[in-house]
Amino acid sequence: MCGIVGAIAQRNITPILLEGLRRLEYRGYDSAGVAVLASDGSIQRVRAVGKVIELEKALEAAPAGGHLGIAHTRWATHGKPAEHNAHPHLSQRLAIVHNGIIENHAPLRKRLIDLGYSFTSETDTEVVAHLLAHYYGEKKDLLEAFRATLGDIHGAYALAIIHQDQPETLYCARAGSPLVIGEGSDEHYLASDPLALLQVTDRFRYLEEGDYARITRTGCDIWSRDHQVAERPVKRYEHAAHSLEKGEYRHYMLKEIFEQPDAISDTLAGTLGDDHVLTAVLGPEAETRLGEIRNIHIVACGTSYHAGLVARYWIEEQAGIPCQVEVASEYRYRTVVVPDGTLLITISQSGETADTLAALRYAKDQGYLATLAICNVAGSSLVREADWRLLTHAGPEIGVASTKAFTTQLVALLWLTTALVQVRGGDAALVARNVAALRSLPGLVLQALGLEPQITALAERFANKHHALFLGRGPHYPIAMEGALKLKEISYIHAEAYAAGELKHGPLALVDEDMPVVSVAPSDSLLEKLKSNLEEVRARGGQLITFACETVEHHDDSNSVTYTLPWVEDCISPVLYTIPLQLLSYHVALVKGTDVDKPRNLAKSVTVE
Ligand code: G6P
């Protein structure tokens, strides 16, 4: 997705902008550009299609330096990836970068053409550039012109602007797309994600929805949507910069898979008593009102949606609370029936996913008891806009394919289920069992990671495969879905997941000696049922790859192979069985030679609809 970086300092800010763009590369983009106010007072703009390295090469050919500038990585929405569509866009004496979508760009474009403006791109962003130039011509005051522009545009945006007439000032605004102002020593920065600026600061002001700001080297003025002066406190970013390095690992994804024992420990820190959970971590209001919940709706996208699907099994079985789970892109556009006492839970790694955020905003008017965000980014929009929050502490996740964010979401959701059982005066033995199981998870995950050498060898078998099936039952059905999604995302092998009982209703027709069938087979009450389903595959010559509990007998032959995991309590086995599936997709991607951390066409944080 698009990324924004801006800076104002006494020194040359081009290196800060480029390093910021490099740090945003993991989000996925197709072109990049910078605009810098040069010492002669002109705006120098350089843009390039492809990776940031292409922009760096272009800058070597045409150096641009100065003390004020903005930069951007673009992920095409309006107009194909091409240099003329890359940001920054110029109009008269200003330059602008934009994340998001201006929904009324078409009528505005027509209006501006009628006023005599000509367009050099197909983007919605250039409309904002000309509109601002137009209002500046009328009002002769950039702040007033900016206000008028913001009043005319509808949609989702984060904007950053520089103008030749104000060589000491950077302007910005956010509505529906995140933006933070970073504070340095006698310099200020701007970015769509604090990660972009961790090389220069760990102090940030998080702009709220509708905020706009004027930033100088020494300070910033912020106004809210209704033009009132707004105070946005400086907060320290909590993750250390070194956690952003790949270290000894070949890819971020592998590093993040191996960070899971620590990520789970960090997420559980301060949340568990001896035999009970410490609900205070939810905050005073949530803690006291947890007992009022009669119903739960969970809304999320992608991998986070899969975490929600697992949680439904836990919440209904253990807490006895009806629970439904839905993808945010559907939920936000339908009429929902919200029974009294319903809690809405949104789950998101980034806290900026456009559909999930829109779903939360939609839910605000639907009569929910409260909204709860489960999220890995404390300062994200989702966390700030939800009534209650439950943070995961996975640390920054750079690989596009989510791994440690997913398992920590599962941990947070099992913890929440346990909290619900506890406050409702449920089975104390169950609560104690869950607590003990959660405590044992980091060690068990470490053991599961020990399967890597075997899985590396297994991955070779996928070298020539174009399709794969994943099977599971109960809460391991969503784990099979997550396994299939991982394989699709990074190895580009078409993979589908089925509840194993559904096999005979269609997908069995696909099974032959070329079809790998990966199944998740822990030792639970559904194991015998699953085994019968697997026999249906074996009888048709399918290639069975089974992840099973070490306590269960298995018979491998030339068409089937089993990998074993330690016995665990049922409640935590979805977390454990996720690990080999992550390793499998990673090693298959290596065999296929794909771009593991930045798979084609995908973005880490999908901040547009
Ligand atoms: C993108 C990412 C996925 C992620 C999904 C939801 O598609 O590539 O890895 O699961 O967005 O993101 P969120 O940040 O809301 O969890």
UniProtKB/TrEMBL annotation:
Residue span, Glutamine amidotransferase type-2 domain: 2-218
A GO term, aspect molecular function: carbohydrate derivative binding
Reactions catalysed, as given in the entry: D-fructose 6-phosphate + L-glutamine = D-glucosamine 6-phosphate + L-glutamate
InterPro entries: GATase_2_dom (IPR017932), GFAT (IPR005855), GFAT_N (IPR047084), GlmS/AgaS_SIS (IPR035466), GlmS/FrlB_SIS (IPR035490), Ntn_hydrolases_N (IPR029055), SIS_dom (IPR001347), SIS_dom_sf (IPR046348)
Cited Pfam families: GATase_6, SIS
Keywords assigned by UniProt, alphabetized: Aminotransferase, Cytoplasm, Glutamine amidotransferase, Repeat, Transferase
Key word Kinase present: no
Primary location class: cytoplasm
Signal sequence, renumbered to the chain: none
GO annotation terms (biological process): amino sugar biosynthetic process; carbohydrate metabolic process; fructose 6-phosphate metabolic process; protein N-linked glycosylation; UDP-N-acetylglucosamine metabolic process
Residues annotated as catalytic: 2, 604
Top enzyme category: transferase
Subunit structure: Homodimer.
Full protein name: Glutamine--fructose-6-phosphate aminotransferase [isomerizing]
